[in-house]
Amino acid sequence: MLRFAIRDGIIVLTTLALLWFSPESWFPQVFLGVGLGLVAYLFHEWAHLLGALVVRAKVDSPASIFSPFLFSFDSQANSTSQFVHMTWPGFLATAIYISAYYLFLPDTLWGEIAWWMALALSLATLIIEGPLALWVVLRSDLPPVEIPFLGDNRALKQVMKRVRGGS
Asked: Which helix (H) or strand (E) holds 109?
């Protein structure tokens, strides 16, 4: 996790430096807007990870530093309660950044880029994570939620085995 903390710290510090200098030309403004969009995404992902770590959930780390994900939640080793406590901090982080961006982003090129990225990320959270979280809460049933090709992924291996006919 340290290497991801360093990677993401560099992204945040670079974005803050660009924000500090408040660029006028379009090229650094695009980088600043994209950087703020990435910061929103990272805030969401780190909130999920911190929620998982607080409840001592088993998570698998990606092998590559270039992975957009910080971890994969092990649905076989963890409980539905651990899943819920991993999930809600990500939703809270999304509510915080979308509110802050709505209230404080200026009407500039970088502000527009950051806003639309934050809105797209919020929509993706609502569409992808929302129904799954609702399913788990309402049914107290945790389906396989592992991210394919990240970590051990025992649940995905079992699904693939069933698809292949038990071989």
From this structure: helix 109-124
